[in-house]
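Q: I'm a student working through a structural biology exercise. My instructor gave each of us a protein and asked us to get a predicted structure, then write a short paragraph describing it. Mine is Homoserine O-succinyltransferase. I'm not confident about reading structure output yet, so if you can add a plain explanation after the tokens, that would really help. Here is the sequence I was given:
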Amino acid sequence: MPVRIPDNLPAAEILESENIFVMSETRAANQDIRPMRVLILNLMPNKIETETQLLRLLGNTPLQVDVDLLRIHDKESKHTSIDHMNTFYRDFEHVRHNNYDGLIITGAPLGQIDFEDVVYWEHIKEIIDWSQEHVTSVLFLCWAAHAGLFHLYGINRSLLEQKRSGVFNHTRTSEPHPLLRGFDDEFFAPHSRYAEVNINDLHQHAEIEVLAQSPEAGAYIALSRNNRNLFVMGHPEYQKNTLNDEYQRDLGLGINPKIPSNYYRDNDPSQEPIARWHSHGSLLVSNWLNYYVYQLTPYDLSDMSAMTPWETKK
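A: Happy to help. First, here is the predicted structure for Homoserine O-succinyltransferase. I'll explain a few features afterward.
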């Protein structure tokens, strides 16, 4: 939340140059405040687990957030009861005429399938296109980040020889940047995917800015120049045991997976995993909500044309 300060306080200019959110008394007195409306398109098999992970991150911000849950189709889920889906999830036809402050599109277990071969690919494209007119900012996670980069900017991914799973060290490529406010120079984040977008393709694209990357895991955070689309190639929402659950599942399927990198103590799966990404995961989502949703979204969501350009907020 912003720090309210007297009009024309000299410290304001310094604080704003450091991306500290300050607000003059005059602006604060005339500000209308309402809850942020965030839509979550949940593509993960275990809906309840993913809901909990994302809501935990959204709940770490002091902003009030109203959440709607969206499903990609009404077919029965193997991992979530139909009663849960019918009770808590909405179909796209029920929200397509709404506007939202934010949209989160989750990952999906589709890393080895060509986008055009995904059974609901046309529906995914429709929702992404809709979001560019009806949502202030979109957060794409893992598979969704690859899908969004491909559909919106024509940047394709390539399959990896082996699944990239583990917790990797990352560095910031841009400083200062509002999205990375409070980040350490180096930080950890989990990845779990079968494909990768070439980092050079991202760096060379005029409409994309890479904000964080890893020598082992490649690009992690990329942002569109118009600030509408945030692409996170990993899983900041994962909990401590999520990678272990995936590893044990793959072992049970006979896939013979690699041990997740930098995850178990002494790299020994019989020992406890080490969680070292929760703080930066929470900070990433909080900064996104603050700088790219709350500060840019119009008070009246019926008029998305009133969205404030980021340049006027610097």
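A: Here are two points you could use in your paragraph. The mean pLDDT is 89. The first strand starts at residue 3 and ends at 5. It's a good idea to check both against the output above yourself.
Q: Great, thank you!
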